[in-house]
Amino acid sequence: MYKTIGIVTGGGDAPGLNAVIRAAVKTATGEYGMRVIGIEDSFEGLLGETSTRELQPADVRGLLPRGGTILGTRNRGRFVKHKDGDTDDERPESFQEAIKNLSRLGIEALVVLGGEGTLAIAAEFDRQGIPVIGVPKTIDNDLAATELTFGFVTALDIATEALDRLHTTAESHDRVMILEVMGRHAGWIALHSGIAGGADVILIPEIPFSAESVAQKIAQREASGSQFSIIVVAEGAQEVGHDMIYQEEGKAGSAPRLGGVGNHLRNDLEQMTGKETRCVVLGHLQRGGSPNAFDRMLATNFGACAVRALAAGERGMMVALQAADIRTVPISEAVAAIKTVPPDGQLVRTARDTGISFGAPDEATHHGGRQK
Ligand code: F6P
User: Fold this and answer.
1) Does position 365 have pLDDT exceeding 70, yes or no?
2) Where are the beta strands (DSSP E) in the chain?
3) Ligand 1 atom at minimal distance to the Cα of residue 286
4) How far is the CA of 348 from the centre of ligand 1 (A)?
């Protein structure tokens, strides 16, 4: 049994990080008598002078509903260097330094909360001798091997509320309203919130769209008496024959930032349809603030299960939600490839059956131009 474990949060924040920290600290100290050291600012806190603090039950009081992470977080940092083509180079010198510092601090094993990038670093720590259990975090829900990541359902609530609000203003002004949501290379947030929020068009990276097809859908709605339309577009959605749109090149070895497809589409649609069109970029509102009830519950279960897995001697594994149960799966399985929306899957079909367009070039003809 370990005497001291460390806990790290990495990558973009997500609602529920603090709830995981709280559950892990309570379980580790209460059930197993372990000490827990919080590592600050992701793995960066293990470099140089190091930045860590012991977390006792009193330090996690009141954390369940609190957004963000009390430990701070960083994207990538000094453990990987982003290369073109979405691949990363590890920096061996950072791992060596961090492992020396872990041993100096008496930290024998790690619970690592993160998405694909952070968990890939975690897996490397495990390979280099530090036992690790990962906890899947991302509002994008794009991690393989788990049905859900915490933070996703809260992000959906926020995107759905935004769609509800856009409906009333769109209807009052007879406008087309576009909501751009996050998700990187996966369309989960757009798909789920688009269905929950009654969007007329959902555009996702997995189904390339044509602006003409979207304009046609708007025209069909007009012909049937609906003078407004609601579009939800994932930041990674691509027009047929075009690349994804980035708002910023990667800086100092970090990944480029997606964004801008909504405004691009707004210009095209205004020209094509002659209708007033507005775009709202929901951005980091999807990540900030309190987790909803489901994410608090999932995060708590993940945190406790992660510590139990470490205590049982598991390593190199990630806690995952599968068939309503928390299991452990190899981290390597979770980071091998991202989980994207199956374009022929049930939910896409349900969306189409209920009159939602994905803006695919052949969609209007394919679906008989049906109305909502
Ligand atoms: O992966 C989570 C995420 O929120 C993505 O949906 C989005 O593309 C990205 O992070 C934004 O990152 P940043 O916080 O660096 O702007």
Assistant:
1) no
2) 4-9, 35-39, 52-54, 80-82, 88-90, 109-114, 132-136, 176-181, 201-203, 229-234, 246-248, 257-258, 277-281, 317-322, 325-330
3) 4
4) 24
For residues 180 and 119, state if they share a domain: no
Residues having CB closer than 6 A to ligand 1 are: 12, 75, 115, 138-140, 182-184, 235, 257-258, 287
pLDDT digits over 106-144, tens only?
Answer: 999 999 999 999 999 999 999 999 999 999 999 999 999
Q: How many domains does the chain have?
A: 2
Whether 182 is covered by a domain: the verdict is yes
Asked whether residue 371 is assigned to any structural domain, the reply reads no
- Pick left, alpha or beta for residue 33 (phi over 0 → left; psi -120 to 50 → alpha; otherwise beta): left
Does residue 372 carry a pLDDT above 60? no
19 pLDDT above the threshold of 60: yes
Q: What is the CATH number of the domain that holds 249?
A: 3.40.50.460
What's the DSSP call for residue 48? T
Catalytic residue among 41, 126, 140, 200: 140
Give the position, in ligand 1's atom list, of the atom nearest the Cα of 258: 8
Confidence band for 363, pLDDT divided at 50, 70 and 90 = confident
Residue 14 CA to ligand 1 center (angstroms) comes to 10
| φ, ψ dihedrals at 347, nearest 5° | -70, -35
Hey, is 364 helix, strand or coil?
A: helix
How does residue 253 score in pLDDT terms, banded at 50, 70 and 90?
low
Strand partners, 133: 111, 317
Full domain range(s) for residue 218: 153-287+342-365
Q: What is the pLDDT of residue 371?
A: 41
325 is catalytic: no
Residues 9 and 114 in one domain: yes
**In the prediction, which pLDDT does 80 show?**
83
pTM: 0.95
On the 0-12 / 13-18 / 19+ scale of CB atoms within 10 A, 172 is exposed
Contacts from 323-331 at CB under 8 Å and sequence distance 24+? 323/147, 326/301, 326/302, 328/133, 329/145, 329/146, 331/119, 331/122, 331/123, 331/126, 331/132, 331/134
Is residue 83 over pLDDT 90?
no
